[in-house]
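User: Quick sanity check before I run a bigger batch. Here is a single chain. Can you write out its predicted 3D structure?
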Amino acid sequence: MKFLTWLAASALMCAVAVPALAGTFVYVSNAEDGDIGAYRLGPDGALEVLARTPAGKLVLPLAVSPDRRFLYAAVRTKPYSVHVYAIEAATGALKPMAVSPLAESFPFITLDKTGRFLLGASYGAHLVSVNAVGRDGRVAAQPLQVIPVGRNAHAIRIDATNRFVFVPTLGSDAIFEFVFDEKTGRLASNTPALALMSQSTGPRHFVFSPDNKFVYVLSELLATVTTFALDGTTGTLSELHTTPGLPSDTTLMPGAPRVPMGSSNAQPRNTDNDIWASDIHITPDGRFLYIAERTSSTLSAFAVDTQTGALTYLGSTPTEKQPRGFAIDSSGKFLVASGEQSDTISVYAIDQSNGALRLLQKYPTGKGSNWIEIVSFD
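Assistant: Done. Predicted structure follows.
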């Protein structure tokens, strides 16, 4: 009896000392409403709708710190700024921490692997910047660097080694290559300084393979994905393959660069039938890759040859209207997609054998929902 009493007491102490973490949370930026919606993702893919937290009009790109303590949200209306939120691991709640100015309107932000630097890419101003981040998650008001790049910089990411940074410039059909110093946060041009792509490709977003050997670049204007080999020593890219991401019978036509979000300039031509690809993500095991195309409102799936980096187009699935962003959870079992012209978000189950997407359920969201981040505390 004494042993059983001791065992029960020990179990109770452990339960008190180590509180259970809540699991996985989904965050969606609602540009037109100017807030961030939160959801709890269950093990069966069901979403529980949580609170919505104010940010600012045209809140769009989100980024999560490597330690998952902070969520960053960039606002693309003046004064350009980044909102910092502390993530409550037990509930998924966002606690506003600080608001800091940004150098420009950024459609893409990210943090380096240490979480000490915030990097941003500006489509309208054709530049990238680096801001220091304090231990408390707050972003320094003055950037460390502001660097001009090619036309329409649309993304910025750092590789798994935290040494190499890449920036696709949609209007220049080039990917700028940088070397990153994680001690100072400074970027320096690599040699060569860029990788050129075919004219009118329009490189937009990209992802690294989980083993850091390949880079997959999405063409906004063609909805193709180009595979590059990443040299782990020099940090330079070598183009390998390009794979179409739409059905062969598509009636969509190649697109052209568009005016920046929030700009008062009118569109120069009718774009109703333009290809307008938006986002790209890869499963944690590297076996399947997905892209979103806004005009057709579809998600396209690819099988990945993890040895060669080659892609095979598998098919397209209807999704939310004008899908701007989506994300895959850390288990690789679920994909969550938003639509800028939809009042719902969709959760799909990913077939682990063939990558097919199966719609599980739709859930309410805000106006202009676009960027999605998924944070797991399991």
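The domain at 31-260+270-376 is CATH 2.130.10.10 (Methylamine Dehydrogenase; Chain H).

User: Great, the batch can go ahead then.
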